[in-house]
Every structure is written in structure tokens, then in C-alpha cells.
Design a protein that fits this description.
about 240 residues, alpha/beta, Rossmann fold, DNA polymerase, domain 1, 6 strands
């Protein structure tokens, strides 16, 4: 996808505090977690192991190699790459059959698009799955994607978001990290976004995420527009 230059972005984009938005995918942009949980549970069952709903919740937002290691300890007698490939295959089949966008996500993407605010996808899913999800959107809302197979250390490390910031500098030459919003739903994800220096916004979905002064918590993206995001820039998290 061609990149845009800040000079040709609408005036709205230059007059808001928000310089860009980095989005998590699973659980934030769309609800893939049921597919992941089913794939994990089925894989453990196929190998005679035991798996609970709490076990599944513990993996929400985790990097795929980390999830594979947990599944191996639960009894899955396969290599890391083989586990990841099987999970990807099953989750992508679910997405291809039905996509459930998270409430308010498409509306916020459209508002940011109309305002000329660049968006990037930062996900621990791998490239083929991210590409599939982006192909299902009604418009090309995302300028780029950062995926789990592009970084050595995944979330909760800041590396994926630091790479996202690096890509955003091609669109926003005067980029300031605190003027970039990171939207997440999980503990590993929001920790990574905050550690990268973003204005981190948590929209909880599945699993418990502790409160922290390092991020803002909002119940639903249905409550969020560009003015809301702008108001959070430079304000201590509540």
C-alpha cells in the first residue's frame, strides 16, 4: 500500500493532537478470540491433554511462540512451528467463514480516515492472517501492518510498537510517540503500547487487565471518536 506524505494530508490531521493510531487486531479490531480458544482447546484435546477456559484466557494477547510453549506444556507433542501453523490454519478458516468486528471499530476507522489520521496494525498474529483481515475491511484504512513474525520479541515487549512508530515516521516526519495512540484489549498488548511511549488506550474484551496509571481504560470503542483520542494526548492516564 503506498504511503502518504504529511504535507498532503487534510488540514484536520495537522490540527489535531493525534498524529497516528496503532491498532491491535485480535480482540480489538475484530473478535477472533473464540476462534483462537477453540483451536487451542481442540489441539490440546487431540493430544490427550487438559485445557480450561482459564488456560485459554491466559494466552489472550500473547506472542504465538509463547502460546505454543504453553500448549506444549499442556501436552501438545508438536514443534513450535507446527503448532503455530495449525492454529493459524484453523483461525483463518473461522475468519473466512465469519467476521465479527468489535463494536465501534469500523466507525472509528472511518472517522480517522476522513480526518487523514494514518493508522497501522500491530498484531501478534502472523502476516497471512493480518493480510486476510485487512482484505475484509470495507476500505484500505491501514497504511501498514506489523505482525508477530516481523519481531523477535512480541508483546508485552515494546518491540512491535516501536517498529510501528518507525513505520509511522515515513508518514509523520515530526512524530512524537506520545501523540500516537495505541488501542489494545489485553494485558500483554497494553503493556507493550505503554512501554513504547504511546498514549495507550485499553478497551477490555476477554480476560482481566489490571488498572494502571500507564494507560486509559474505555469500556467500548463506541464511546470513542477523534475528539476523545485528542483529549487523552498529554493527559495522565485515568
Amino acid at each position: 500500500m503506498p504511503t502518504a506524505n504529511l504535507a498532503v494530508l487534510p488540514a484536520t490531521a495537522r490540527n489535531t493532537a493525534v498524529q497516528g493510531v496503532l491498532w491491535d487486531m485480535d480482540g480489538t479490531l475484530l473478535d477472533t478470540e473464540p476462534y483462537w480458544m477453540a483451536a487451542e482447546g481442540d489441539l490440546v484435546a487431540e493430544h490427550g491433554g487438559r485445557w480450561s477456559h482459564e488456560d485459554a484466557l491466559s494466552l489472550v494477547g500473547s506472542a504465538l511462540p509463547d502460546s505454543a510453549a504453553v500448549l506444549q506444556r499442556a501436552g501438545v507433542d508438536l514443534g513450535t512451528r507446527e503448532i503455530i501453523d495449525l492454529l493459524n490454519e484453523r483461525v483463518m478458516a473461522g475468519i473466512s467463514n465469519h467476521v465479527q468486528w468489535r463494536p465501534g471499530a469500523l466507525e472509528l476507522l472511518e472517522e480517522l480516515h476522513q480526518a487523514g489520521i494514518p493508522c497501522g496494525l500491530v498484531t501478534m498474529s502472523e502476516g497471512p492472517m493480518a493480510t486476510l483481515v485487512l482484505s475484509l475491511l470495507p476500505k484500505k484504512y491501514f497504511a501498514f501492518q506489523v505482525t508477530g513474525d516481523q519481531v523477535v520479541r512480541g508483546k508485552p515487549h515494546p518491540d512491535p510498537y516501536l517498529l510501528g512508530l518507525e513505520k509511522l515516521t515515513e508518514l509523520v516526519p515530526d512524530l512524537e510517540s506520545h501523540r500516537i495512540v495505541g488501542i489494545e484489549d489485553s494485558a500483554p498488548g497494553i503493556t507493550a503500547a505503554a512501554a513504547a511511549g504511546l498514549t495507550a488506550v485499553l478497551v477490555p474484551h476477554l480476560g482481566h487487565v489490571p488498572e494502571s496509571d500507564l494507560w486509559h481504560s474505555i469500556d467500548s470503542l463506541e464511546q470513542v471518536g477523534l475528539p476523545t483520542l485528542s483529549s487523552l494526548i498529554g493527559i495522565g492516564a485515568r
